[in-house]
Amino acid sequence: MTYTKIANLPNRVKSDDGNRPFRSIHMCLYLRTSDDRFSSIAIDSLQSDSERSLSMPLRRHFLKTIAWSLAIAPVAVRADESGDDLKKLDGAWISKDPNTGDATWTFEKGKLKLEAPGRTYKITVKLDAGAKPHKTMEMKVDEDSPNAKNFDGPAIYKFEGDDKVSICFGTQARPTEFTTKDDFSAFNFELTRKK
Q1: What number is the average pLDDT over the span 177-191?
Q2: What is the CA radius of gyration of the chain?
Q3: Closest Cα partner for 24 from 35, 13, 39?
Q4: Do 79 and 178 meet the contact criterion of CB atoms below 8 Å apart?
Q5: CB under 8 Å to 136, separation ≥6 — which residues?
Q6: Which phi and psi (to 5°) does residue 50 adopt?
Q7: Which positions ≥6 away from 50 have C-beta within 8 Å?
Q8: 3-state secondary structure (DSSP) of residue 189
Q9: 57, 78, 93, 170: which one has the fewest Cβ atoms less than 10 Å from its Cβ?
Q10: Mind listing the pLDDT tens digit for each residue in 119-177?
């Protein structure tokens, strides 16, 4: 299991009265990178010139710092991953359909222009790269879209390398697998990056 240090408190801080500096204070927060959840807090030894315990106000300060880090860091990690996936999507992609013809998907900074034979859609895209078991995508057709105005399509997506991505969206609920349903409740598209 791999851990990454995400926070490091100073090696020297002073006690409340400012007269007795603690000789060694070292606190580290570690993030387990396998599933983006905090699993341990490692706190190194703490010593004072005259005592081995922190005063209560300073203890409370450290506890608040830890609680604050635990609360916001997973959200920040997921936001970073989603932002990375949005950047990875940027550009033009092609999906092929033997019945309706090829479609061009052009992503740019969270916006999608989908051009298929006889129809065009303008869509706002939001990602959650930390969702399980599949990464999720919210597809909301814009008000000024030529077709399907204000349609919301909950979707899932997955990358296969840098030049392939699968997107499956539902017409009623979010799909649980990457497949097109016969009852038209889900449509799966395999996109390849346009060269």
Answers
A1: 95
A2: 25
A3: 13
A4: no
A5: 127, 128, 154, 155, 156, 157, 174
A6: -125, -10
A7: 20
A8: strand
A9: 57
A10: 999 999 999 999 999 999 999 999 989 898 888 999 999 999 989 999 999 998 999 99
Number of C-beta neighbours around residue 190 at 10 A: 15
- Say how far apart CA 116 and CA 148 lie, in whole Å: 13
Which phi-psi region, left, alpha or beta, contains residue 99 (left: φ > 0; alpha: ψ -120 to 50)?
Answer: alpha
Pinpoint the alpha helices (H) of 2-157: 56-89
pTM of the predicted protein model = 0.61
Dist CA 16 CA 82 (whole Å): 42
Higher pLDDT, 93 or 149: 93
* Residue 180 in tokens: 């097109």
Give the total residue count for the chain: 195
Greatest CA separation found in the chain? 81
